[in-house]
Write a structure and sequence with these properties.
single chain; 4-stranded antiparallel sheet
Length: 184
Amino acid sequence: MKKIIILIFISVLSFNANAALVDNGGGLIYDSTQNITWLQDANYASTSGYDADGEMSWSAASSWVDGLSYGGHDDWRLPTTVQPDASCTFTSPTSWGWNCTGSEMGNLYYTTLGNAQFDDISLINTGPFTNVKDEYHSGTAHPAGSGTYWSFDFDGGNQVGSDSDEYAWAVADGNIAASVVPIP
């Protein structure tokens, strides 16, 4: 009986962590909390052959997502970062650090997937997503300028400004379902 109760408890916890994610099929995951659709493959830039390993400059990541046509849609973008974000560990003069749930990636990491802040430990819960890597570009410019943009670290939940090569994860506004191709 004790094992059954524990299993039910674990099942409820797992369900709550992923309750906002809906698998629309065709590699599209709808996040009902944020009203955005994520590509299920978090390194599709590499999988699709656009970039050998998926790590690229912010400019290349922006070009890739701007030209992306997937699931019958071409309105993909990089996730946004909210500034200011009072949920972040550090908020002056910009919002950065851990627990930044105002950004789309931070909300996915902490709220939707139920991950906790880690220090250099691999991501535990990836939910329905595949090929989740460490650091991802945001589409939001950092006030430092000179090609610096906000990024999010999925290995530890840290939001920082960066000008280095990182991965790109495409999102689109709204609930996008895979287009159905009629069979002749």
